[in-house]
Amino acid sequence: MIPAVMRASAKSILVGIDEAGYGPILGPLVVSAAAFEVPTAALDDCLWQKLRRSVSNTTTARRARIAILDSKLLYRRKVGLAPLERSVLAVLAAWRGLPATMRPLLGLLCPDALGELADYPWYDGADPTLPRSADAAIVRIAGGLLASDLAEHDLRLAGCYAEVLAEGHYNRLVEKTRNKSVALFGLVLRLIHRIARAYPRHPLRIVVDKQGARSRYGPLLMRAFADRHLRIISETAEQSSYAMSAGDSSWRISFEQSGESKHLPVALASLFSKYLREILMGCFNEYWSRQVTDLKPTAGYYQDGLRFLQDIQEQVRRLKLSRDTLVRQR
């Protein structure tokens, strides 16, 4: 009889992590993870190549293929939400089914966020129908093709996860840590903890899209996972990699520049983060458009965010809203 540890190690969990909304002054910061169960011997194989029947890494995906690439390449405001939404919802359809509205989507990916979002009038009670722009029938067909392609290659969607940090919660976390990048890293650690709890007996291979100039993550990882032994594999401007072990449990965590262009799970995490942020920004803009006539919506970035704040300032005063609830600091 094969021991349980050996049976588990025949499969590993391959994870990509990426964010959306690190720079804006309005709206949430979102960090997401996409996890696949893969044969351990195939961890270094290219998933875009394996899944080429159902997935493309270009914006010109044809028929039922899903475009999975950096969200900055797939999403254009002039084109609209449909291409991004089609990819994200097709993956969800292949994994757990198509959510009918935003709240079941959040409940699936980031259940803790539902309670926190109730603190904000622009999110509280909002529950837009999904899809917003994509064709639901095409989404289901694409999801079905992806599911069969995964099964054919002995692959499985192990989970999709997200951490949503709304404006006021963002400000409080940054105030506590005194550092915007440390706040972001904290969300990455939460995702790793969630995946490790879900798959305690599987080896983990985690790739995080690198933010900023940091190259040394060892001390942060050792504080977060004090029960594990850490070994530095490499620390360069392009990639920092670490092996972390505890007994029979082994992890490899890498922080890579442009990770979304090299690893399908990172690109997929980028899409999930961008989609969640865009759906929540839709709620934000719809709320304020009910308060101010002929208000032009915003994506929340600095210059246009300042314009938007100027346009709503009278209503902000009337509603007695704290600036710390509305505007992200730092």
Helix content: 40-55%
User: How big a fraction of the residues is strand?
Assistant: 15-25%
Strand order of the largest sheet: 5-2-1-6-9-8-7
Q: Are there runs of 5+ residues with pLDDT below 50, and where?
A: 1-8
Structure report:
The termini are far apart. The longest helix is centred in the last third of the chain and has 28 residues, at 264-291. The protein has one domain (4-326): Nucleotidyltransferase, domain 5 (2-Layer Sandwich). The protein has 13 helices and nine strands. The model is unreliable at 1-8 (pLDDT under 50). By secondary structure, it is α/β, with parallel strands linked by helices. It has helices at residues 4-9, 47-50, 71-74, 82-95, 102-109, 112-117, 136-152, 167-177, 180-198, 218-224, 264-291, 302-319, 323-326; strands at residues 11-20, 29-39, 55-56, 66-67, 156-165, 204-209, 229-235, 239-246, 249-256.
Question: Keywords for this structure?
Answer:
7-stranded mixed sheet, 330 residues, two-stranded parallel sheet, alpha/beta, 44% helix, Nucleotidyltransferase, domain 5, disordered N terminus
SSE layout:
Layout: H1 4-9, E1 11-20, E2 29-39, H2 47-50, E3 55-56, E4 66-67, H3 71-74, H4 82-95, H5 102-109, H6 112-117, H7 136-152, E5 156-165, H8 167-177, H9 180-198, E6 204-209, H10 218-224, E7 229-235, E8 239-246, E9 249-256, H11 264-291, H12 302-319, H13 323-326
Helix pairs in contact: 4-7, 4-11
Concise description?
With 330 residues, the protein is α/β, with parallel strands linked by helices. It is built from 13 helices and 9 strands.
